[in-house]
Write a structure and sequence with these properties.
5 helices; alpha/beta
Length: 162
Amino acid sequence: MTITINGYIAKENDDAPWSDELWVSYYNIAKKFKAVVLGRRTFEMMKEVNEFEKIGNPFIVVLTKKKQQNTNNIFFVKSPTEALELLDKKGFKEVLIGGGGKLNASFMKENLVDEMLIDIEPLIFGKGIKLFAEGDFEKKLELLETKRISNNLVHLHYKFIK
């Protein structure tokens, strides 16, 4: 995920004005994964601007309460557990959880995240969508890597302590 200095992944209107360097970093990371799990709004926004081509057309699982028709490459499920069971059946061992904040929180509540990759953009939003929606969870992490993407951008790689 990409966040502002104060922990937002987008403005309230879903606008995410990230720099070109940040998008390059995101595409490079996302291409390493053959499967991605997204919330419905994030999926719809990415689909609208053809983001899936830029990340190598991964296998996509969308968490949504809306009933929708699956395709060869896109499946709709109702819970994080259902998403991971489907991905396991399909043979995926690693998956990128691609947001948004509600989806991120749902995986955290069920203790289903092993590592977290965060790119920090030097912006501050007064209001917006938090990295994690409100929820009853608390996690400890261990920093595995810090990398400078550019003069202003930082990439952090954490492991969750179970």
